[in-house]
Amino acid sequence: MTNPVEIKPASGKLGVLLPGIGAVSTTFIAGVEAVKAGIGKPIGSLTQMGSLRLGKRNEQRDSKIKDFVPLYDLENLVFGGWDIFAEYPDCYSAAVNAGVLEQSLLDQLKDQLSEIKSMPAVFNQKYVKNLNPTRIKDVTSHRDAIDALRSDIRNFKETNNLERAVMVWCGSTETFQAPDSDIFENLSSFEKALDNDDPSILPSVLYAYAALQEDVPYANGAPNLSADFPAMYELSHKLKVPIAGKDFKTGQTLMKTILAPGFKARMLGIEGWFSTNILGNRDGEVLDDPESFKTKEVSKLGVLEQILKPEENPDLYGDLYHKVRINYYPPRGDDKEGWDNIDIRGWLNYPMQIKIDFLCKDSILAAPIVLDLALFMDLASRSGKYGIQEWLSFYFKSPTCKPDLYPLHDLFVQKNKLENTLRDLMGEDLITNLGLDYYDE
Amino acid sequence: MTNPVEIKPASGKLGVLLPGIGAVSTTFIAGVEAVKAGIGKPIGSLTQMGSLRLGKRNEQRDSKIKDFVPLYDLENLVFGGWDIFAEYPDCYSAAVNAGVLEQSLLDQLKDQLSEIKSMPAVFNQKYVKNLNPTRIKDVTSHRDAIDALRSDIRNFKETNNLERAVMVWCGSTETFQAPDSDIFENLSSFEKALDNDDPSILPSVLYAYAALQEDVPYANGAPNLSADFPAMYELSHKLKVPIAGKDFKTGQTLMKTILAPGFKARMLGIEGWFSTNILGNRDGEVLDDPESFKTKEVSKLGVLEQILKPEENPDLYGDLYHKVRINYYPPRGDDKEGWDNIDIRGWLNYPMQIKIDFLCKDSILAAPIVLDLALFMDLASRSGKYGIQEWLSFYFKSPTCKPDLYPLHDLFVQKNKLENTLRDLMGEDLITNLGLDYYDE
Amino acid sequence: MTNPVEIKPASGKLGVLLPGIGAVSTTFIAGVEAVKAGIGKPIGSLTQMGSLRLGKRNEQRDSKIKDFVPLYDLENLVFGGWDIFAEYPDCYSAAVNAGVLEQSLLDQLKDQLSEIKSMPAVFNQKYVKNLNPTRIKDVTSHRDAIDALRSDIRNFKETNNLERAVMVWCGSTETFQAPDSDIFENLSSFEKALDNDDPSILPSVLYAYAALQEDVPYANGAPNLSADFPAMYELSHKLKVPIAGKDFKTGQTLMKTILAPGFKARMLGIEGWFSTNILGNRDGEVLDDPESFKTKEVSKLGVLEQILKPEENPDLYGDLYHKVRINYYPPRGDDKEGWDNIDIRGWLNYPMQIKIDFLCKDSILAAPIVLDLALFMDLASRSGKYGIQEWLSFYFKSPTCKPDLYPLHDLFVQKNKLENTLRDLMGEDLITNLGLDYYDE
Amino acid sequence: MTNPVEIKPASGKLGVLLPGIGAVSTTFIAGVEAVKAGIGKPIGSLTQMGSLRLGKRNEQRDSKIKDFVPLYDLENLVFGGWDIFAEYPDCYSAAVNAGVLEQSLLDQLKDQLSEIKSMPAVFNQKYVKNLNPTRIKDVTSHRDAIDALRSDIRNFKETNNLERAVMVWCGSTETFQAPDSDIFENLSSFEKALDNDDPSILPSVLYAYAALQEDVPYANGAPNLSADFPAMYELSHKLKVPIAGKDFKTGQTLMKTILAPGFKARMLGIEGWFSTNILGNRDGEVLDDPESFKTKEVSKLGVLEQILKPEENPDLYGDLYHKVRINYYPPRGDDKEGWDNIDIRGWLNYPMQIKIDFLCKDSILAAPIVLDLALFMDLASRSGKYGIQEWLSFYFKSPTCKPDLYPLHDLFVQKNKLENTLRDLMGEDLITNLGLDYYDE
């Protein structure tokens, strides 16, 4: 047993700032309000419902996570955010428009949700082709945009009398931007590029930069570049603020990082994996643009390679053909359906097939992730952690990690990492599942 | 880093004794012969194809398991076994009859397979209603049966000049026998029951007893009681022989122990899980008998409960309705198909559904398990391990463990346990996935 | 063009009498009320939404069926029925209990539905094991039961000032009763058996008998024997009343009679057809009783044989293995899910597979059938038709037909028959799809 | 009963000419040879295995089609064709390369198949982007190409001493060419365009033209324009030769024209139909080119509209969203898999869903169509029929019909048309399924 880390108390109120008040954000906020009102359960949230084992199996000391580590409770969360639609100026109208939750539930929460107003967003249609904003910030340079966002953050904290705040990106997928330009290499070249209004710097990067400058931990729920490049890592170290990303791991990719480790564990070969999605909401519309799809595709395709390590297992995964398709299909509405065909190979290369049809709801799967990230990022900050929070890989399609490491995509390795990080934080023994001593005589 | 355990060398030849020379056994044996002949790959076998990480992630010291721990290589395995059908007196004819592997492959291995003759089996039709044996041992008491089996084992070792041997049960599912009778409670009452020819003692128990008496590690691939009761644990300690079981984890249950930990990791509720199977081979025929099905059903139903812990998570799993059906369907032939419907619940209890169709091949999935168990059980024996080998839970639907512990069903916990056991055996650091030091400055 | 048949006008009001005011009946009645109130569409109803072609393809004289043949319109329907539950004495409470339609819709129809009271039913628990009635008629003999039902019918017509009435059985599946006893052979032996209270005569038979005696056409929506035996055919001729049956063709069997004719049309072989269902409502509970399941199974298994004619096509269908399973699965609630696996064979016997997952709603599929049968049975009566109405085979899993004919199960043959019967009734040319004259020069 | 048509006898031998000796052609030819050798069954072929009802249902005069109409028998078929690959100069090597049929079967037919040599093809890579021919005719004008093909046809007939011949296009899908140019309007403008080497005239048109000029009936198995425009209809009348097309109806579209008529028959609404395909063979590669895909997409999308008639049924089909995707996926090899999601609507607009997974084999489904078309086109010719043979719509995704008619896509209407055409040809009563007389007293 190691010594526990010193953690500042979760005192006062915690602000949760959300760029993008759409389906995910409103489902998250309305859900928290429903739980507070006693008319909903925070299903899917590890911080609220999860337990972890402490000590030996026969000690039976399992503990709820929220009883084990000091987290803000839901009563002390305050929500804010930015959005591009004047038509839905508050969280209630945006939630109704999103159409994820039942009207009868939203009506019970109308008062609380109507009070949460969204702020005009920093936005550039060039990078999200299929959306038509009706209310954006009138700024003429990157620096102006950053200043406006920082001022929003400060006002939000002041007005709501907040002790602390975190930011979780819940906005749309931007067009693909590789981090290969020099400007992303280090903080000094990046800040010069900011000064020069370099067009490779997309809006989500500006949000991340503004958050760090305000000592606000930043987690990125989309596959956008945002905070995932060396200059931003440098800044997060310099300012001692936690960052994490990227792209919430929900539906089909969640399933992939559950199943692929299973096949790999059993050394089953995989010859092909075909994934198609049908979805009918705004996300589907945005991804119907090939440039936005590319950003998402890169994020979705990456997971198998690290889990399976084809270079180490050429007989099993050397020829894996992996294809991902997303189709805009309006009849599905706010729901989503993922269909996967997986061609696996067993003993002597005999072929088998698996088909998976997942009738899922994206925002329902994403909402608890927003909650957990907000609470854990803040916990990290109070525990003196900063820079990349790799222990939160569990929540992301493309987990950010140190450039000299490979990311961990296996959901169960991610879970083990998260849980052992919490145990380490509190000075508990790490779990290795060895357990030979049970059998000692 | 701990001190490595002292392990006897894998010298000479290892006998692999298989009660039941049917689809699984012949697929296993033919496969090993195919690998030896350079015309097949041992896909699905951790011992042959698996690697594990050693040390830190950035050390890149991943090693093949077979290079890491001292296992017998395939060249030094010798196969033997028992069967009830005079029509298929050797492994070639039995493999042709099983119809799992292509005739053209079997023809290439005809010489090797024809040499492997099966011995007449101990069998009692009362316990496997839908099979009609044509060649069984003429014994009149439990003690006679045990003596005959022990004599078979000794002859087999002598004839083949074997250094060591292991036994892996590959026979049919027997009718259900609960371990609740007093006779299973301890070794003395059990041996008395043996003397009295107690009818609660089924043939697979006699095989296990004979194996242990001959210092042969015993692993049980069916859901039969066999070696899974206190008297047998006592014997395995007394004689210092490893035992493990039970019921090879293949197809649908394998998928269940991959998926359920995934849903649980994300705190997704499960309202219902309906599993149906169609299969057309001898296994399907045997399980068409309700009494054999009961044995299998108990084994199949248990996995979810331990993984999900409904008592700890009543909001998520308190009302889980779990139903498993097996249907004999001749057109499927030697293949098997499992269809699952899973009703899950997310944020605020919103329902989602997952359907999984698994077009699988049972013997193809089971064969590499036989190989791994044979090699690992022998490794355990050479390492001085005995009694229940819980670290091999990875391979079983109903892992045997100490009565005061709960079994571990989560495939990823099982894998972690197996790998850390190997690391411990060789004096390597255990992996906890903490990895905070990568980020130390 | 033949001469049209003389048809009495659809004057006054038509009573629709329903034994069993459960999920199907209430969905049907509430739906008709919703349509009348302008808040719903009668989707699935041929009489309300269907068209048929008249004359040549290039004449473009397609007509709505309801504009072509003289049917009662929805405004002139009056509903009544019998039920066994005192807890749900009217159609509103029964509909709420059934849980098929949304509460918000039912609330809009509360006034109309509350006025429709159900009458105490004739019932015998011996024949429907899993239901526990709370309000049944206190009768001591078959003849008493018939008299009570006839009196109910007369009162219903008088009270509501009805011109005409029809009866459609919407009650539960009774235990299996083969029509092989002598008592079913002719009217005289059957009436003797009625006098003797023969226990082979189940309640649904009494309803049919009572209906015919009151000149009320009778259609049977369950697989019960009810009106499907020679004595009842004789009665329907003697009294000149139409009868039809049996077992509404919805979900999986509907799909089967769509698909099997398709495979047959293309001479594709079928080696196996495995159908499983999961359902969680009262119907599921009733069919969990093996004796009720048998009645349903006989009805479900029959359809393939007639469509495929294995004796004529032994190479294609001689070995067809057809298996149907129904599983009570409460999480599915009022919905139903059917999963089919079909093993087909093409050119040179090469195998292919089809899997069908049908997420359906039984009562939603059955309700429009009740409406169509009520209107068409009455049309038959007004047109002077009586005895078996084979042209309504379209609506049934087990179409009743003359004993010396084989039933027609192919949905498209059934549809052709229904449409040409309507054309014949109105003196229009029958459609043969020959159409050579289009190409004459 | 009408007078039968006079039909010339099926004397001597019938040549079957196939542009494109690839997967479909070789599967067809090898299959016919297998049937002749007694080692295969012509499953899927109506001409070989189908029966049809003659007279009343209770006359039981069902007849095999081949016993009813005078067709060439398989013994008298002679095969020939053109192809673009020098690597596979005969039918055996092409069949091995196609990889559809098992090697062991092909080996048994090697002698027969090796004798069938393919002729160099007329080809233009501009219209089939993803194929790289290695042996094409060296022609410099449309007229040269036609002359070369006509000369091939004459030589083929002479060499093989054939009485008659038919041509069935089995080549690839060409890029999309609408028939909207003036040159397709009538024969005179078309022939002028031929003279001018108009680039809108693609190779498959030249084959059709050559066939007609040689009095060879022409059926088109691809969605190419080929013979489907007014000028070619005019030519087929002028020369009195039958034509038919287009695009063999196999896999997913076959299923669609089975299912959609079923939903329509029951007046079930359809909100969306999403179809995706994965396939790994040459067809998949060709269709990976967007221009070839467009030709196929037009053919695939058309079927629902005619069957459902949204303009007549706006409440049911007015908003139908229909999307078709084809994905090149090499692991599927020569097999194909179609997955469909269908969103249907029932009573009061309640939603239901159907998922269909079809593990099919394209060439296995197409081969018997080639056979039937060859035999029926020749029958048409011997019966004095010419021009568009609409009665063969049954076999096509996009049935050609007179411009002032709408095509018939419903498989069951197509079947009825085909069968009644055969009955009419032989002077039998047409079947209307009325059958009221069975019930006359």
TrEMBL record, chains A, B, C, D:
It comes from Marine Group III euryarchaeote CG-Bathy1. Residues 251-363 form the Myo-inositol-1-phosphate synthase GAPDH-like domain. GO terms for biological process: inositol biosynthetic process; phospholipid biosynthetic process. Belongs to the myo-inositol 1-phosphate synthase family. This is Inositol-3-phosphate synthase. InterPro entries: Myo-inos-1-P_Synthase, Myo-inos-1-P_Synthase_GAPDH, NAD(P)-bd_dom_sf. It comes from the Archaea. GO terms for molecular function: inositol-3-phosphate synthase activity.
